[in-house]
Amino acid sequence: RALHRCRRPGAEMVELPFLPFCALLGALGVVCVAFVSAWCQQWRGGFAWDGSAQMFNWHPVLMVTGMVVLYGAVALVYRLPLSWSGPKLPWKVLHSALALVAFGLTVLGLVAVFNFHNARGTPNMYSLHSWLGLATVLLFSCQWLAVFPSFLLPWPPAWLRALYKPVHVFFGSTILMLAMASCVSGINEKLFFSLKNGTTAYAYLPPEAVFANTLGLLILLFGVLVLWALARPGWKRPEPDSVDTRQVL
């Protein structure tokens, strides 16, 4: 009765369909990758794999693609309505495989920046951006290594999987937030280093600064929308874990 009195007509939120939201989010992810690629091509000299500044340009492209856009897709696999019924094993495999691809792109991005620094004699790991980035990658590595034996192999008991699942979800969101912070701080750091000595200073907002700042906002918008989708109760798998959800490789 008290619950009935508290509810008013029209008080319920209109449920936003997941698939149109997912399509919009996917389009935003493509825009993020297109923006970072265009920035590196238009203003930073394009791409190469030879230790030059053009090799460095692979770093932001691969990090945004792997640690933000693809990782966001990884996080939302179990929000797809198709994953709510039937065996869960194919979705486990898809979730893990996409995470592994994202990790591979991230490793290539690290190789690009370390090779660039080493070729120029630039010190590694001295900035806050580099600390955040490495912490994100290490946490991502630990997450994947913990998930593989916990959910894809038959050894752990069901109670241990149930105990670890909320930890996995929490650190999944944490990794995405750290990736967003790393990308935004990296964009800012690159602009500070680049827009000087013969170029228009960053403080005067030349076109490159406006474009890169917009890229940072798009990355933040994408990440926030992913976190929002993860927090919506109506988009979570509705049924409790069953025998199918504990299916292993």
Automatic annotation (TrEMBL):
The chain crosses the membrane at residues 18-40, 61-81, 93-116, 128-147, 167-188, 209-231. One of its GO terms (cellular component) is lysosomal membrane. It catalyses: Fe(3+)(out) + L-ascorbate(in) = monodehydro-L-ascorbate radical(in) + Fe(2+)(out) + H(+). Its main location: membrane. It is found in: Late endosome membrane; Lysosome membrane. PROSITE patterns: CYTOCHROME_B561 (PS50939). Its EC number is 7.2.1.3. It is a multi-pass membrane protein. Its cofactor is heme b. PANTHER family: CYTOCHROME B561-RELATED, LYSOSOMAL MEMBRANE ASCORBATE-DEPENDENT FERRIREDUCTASE CYB561A3. Transmembrane reductase that uses ascorbate as an electron donor in the cytoplasm and transfers electrons across membranes to reduce iron cations Fe(3+) into Fe(2+) in the lumen of the late endosome and lysosome. Reduced iron can then be extruded from the late endosome and lysosome to the cytoplasm by divalent metal-specific transporters. It is therefore most probably involved in endosomal and lysosomal cellular iron homeostasis. This is Lysosomal membrane ascorbate-dependent ferrireductase CYB561A3. It comes from Struthio camelus australis. The lineage of its organism: Eukaryota, Metazoa, Chordata, Craniata, Vertebrata.
